[in-house]
Prior knowledge:
Blueprint: H1 7-22, E1 38-41, E2 64-73, E3 76-84, H2 92-107
Parallel strand pairs: 1-2
Antiparallel strand pairs: 2-3
Amino acid sequence: MGYVENLNDFQVMVEEEIQRVQNTSGLFTREFPQNIIHFSAIPWINFTGLTHSRSLSFPDSCPKISFGKLMTIGTQKTMAMTLAAHHGLVDGYHMGLFVEELQKLLDE
């Protein structure tokens, strides 16, 4: 599904997607592309660490990024983030570049 600018069109698309998912059995409701990143958010809590449960028998090397609660400390805003990736796909250097770019975008 792509971006839908019109709110009414978006609502129709969401309702159709809810129906599709509710009428689909199993955990996976569609075929996923090979190049995917799992994003999640837990905006209710501030955390210092987070791990993702997974089955080691399932071939999964998708990077996983999770965000926590947005906190205000003095004049600064902070938000916990975890970034997990298979070392065979990405080095710490590249993770650092991602975090630097994300910080630049958040500072704008």
